[in-house]
Every structure is written in C-alpha cells, then in structure tokens.
Design a protein that fits this description.
Blueprint: E1 7-10, E2 20-24, H1 31-42, E3 46-52, E4 61-63, E5 66-68, E6 71-76, E7 81-86, H2 95-108, E8 113-121, E9 134-138, H3 141-149, H4 162-174, E10 178-185, H5 192-205, H6 213-237
Parallel strand pairs: 2-7, 2-8, 8-10
Antiparallel strand pairs: 1-3, 3-6, 4-5, 6-7, 9-10
Helix pairs in contact: 1-5, 2-4, 5-6
Length: about 240
C-alpha cells in the first residue's frame, strides 16, 4: 500500500511546537487506546483533523447523534498535547503507513516526542495485577532519559511489535524521540487497569495531562463482574452428568 493513500484532513491549525504526540491506535489489550480516550475526555481538547484512507473500512462512528471519522486527531494547545485516536482494527499491512503518517505529522508540527504503548499478555495462569508496572523503551538516549526522569524504568531486552515497533525503529533511524510504554494486559479483552497505569505514566511524561483514573478502575471492576457472571452462567449450562457417545 502506498504511503500517500493515508491523508490528514485538517480542520484547524494548532501550535504544537515542542509538544507531545500520543499514539492511540489500538494495540494488544487496548491500553493505549483507552488511555488516550480518557485523556481526551478529561482535558479540554479540540478535534483538529480527520485521518482517512481508501484502505480504511467504510465506517462512521456516531456520537451524540453526529458522525465521526473512525481515525482522528485531537489537541490541547495550552499543554501542547496531541492525540491520535481510532476505533479501527487495522490490518497489519497498514501499520507502517500509519506509523510514518504519525511521525510525519509530529515533525511537521514541530513536536518533540511521540509516546505509544504496547500490551504484553499475562502468561497462562498468571493473575492480573491491580496496578501493573509500566516500563519504557526509548528510540534515543534522550527519550530514555525523559522516561527515567518520570520514574519509568527501562526494558533491557525483549521485543515490541505493531505500530509501536515501527515508531521506535523510525525514531531511532531519524534520531527522533519516541517512548513506548510496555504494560502487562489481560488476553483478548480491553484491560482498563493496564490503561489506568498507562494513563498515569502519560501524565508523568506530559506536564498538565490528566485522566480520571478512578473511572477506569470502576470500568475494570464492572467488566470483571460481567465476565465472572458469564462464566458462571456458562458453567451452570453444562451437563451435570458425564456424557458418553
């Protein structure tokens, strides 16, 4: 797919010089996507651009009776924070184009840093933690220093995949600061506790950023209760006696 197939439809000009860009495109566990949405609703942000491509599925997100593009950019000029958010489940073939589009926008807007996040699924049988530890990977020594100053420990060895991986590699190649936050996530479901941990880390890296963490924790508790009830109902529906064919 050609890079030019992704276009940014600018709604208004924003001064983001020296600012931070947050990657909210969904990744494993949706921690970064949920954290980005939390920041958008907790801060005074403006919808500044839509992201479109012929390769995107035909989808309109209806909110408050109005249609929205499924990929958008929001910004707060006062604290110099911009967020790319999307409800799209992108095909991996588009990851590179989306990552390069994000870096291009950050450079054109004179932003100093891109922050992304990646989920690492808990091992089978491992109990999810109430407040999972967040670690950082940086594209440059300066990016790692920023994470360390925010109290986020580094990852020494491992791997990152998806859009965050391309952001890291391109950042290293261009000597541009990218920080990817790594957090353990529950498999095959949105992880609100991991999202809360990522949101807290984002707030440390971006002065003035804030998120209603307690709301995320409440949503996690509601989801856990729902899943427990469903598992209980499914268990109750199973035959009580062994079935022999």
């Amino acid at each position: 797919m050609a890079e030019s197939e992704i276009s940014i439809r600018k709604l208004k000009n924003v001064n983001m010089k020296g600012g931070i860009v947050v990657d909210g495109f969904p990744s494993v566990g949706l921690a970064n996507a949920i954290a980005s949405e939390c920041l958008i609703h907790s801060l005074n942000t403006e919808f500044v651009a839509a992201i479109d491509s012929p390769s995107f599925p035909p989808l309109s997100i209806i909110r408050n009776s109005m249609p929205n593009f499924p990929a958008r950019i929001y910004a707060n000029e006062e604290i110099k924070l911009a967020m790319f958010v999307s409800e799209l489940n992108l095909d991996p073939s588009m990851f590179r184009s989306v990552a390069n589009m994000m870096i291009g926008w950050a450079l054109d807007s004179n932003c100093d840093l891109i922050i992304s996040a990646a989920g690492i699924p808990y091992d089978e049988g491992e109990n999810p933690k109430d407040s999972p530890q967040v670690f950082a990977v940086g594209s440059t020594p300066a990016a790692l220093k920023k994470a360390a100053e925010a109290g986020i420990p580094p990852v020494l060895n491992g791997s990152v995949s998806g859009i965050p991986a391309i952001l890291l590699n391109e950042g290293a190649w261009r000597n541009y600061d990218v920080i990817v936050l790594l957090v353990k996530v529950v498999r095959n479901m949105p992880d609100f506790r991991a999202a809360a941990a990522v949101a807290e880390a984002l707030a440390k890296l971006s002065p003035g950023a804030s998120c209603d963490i307690q709301s995320l924790i409440k949503e996690a508790e509601v989801m856990e209760g729902t899943l427990k009830r469903l598992r209980s109902e499914q268990q109750a529906a199973l035959p009580k006696e062994p079935f022999y064919g």
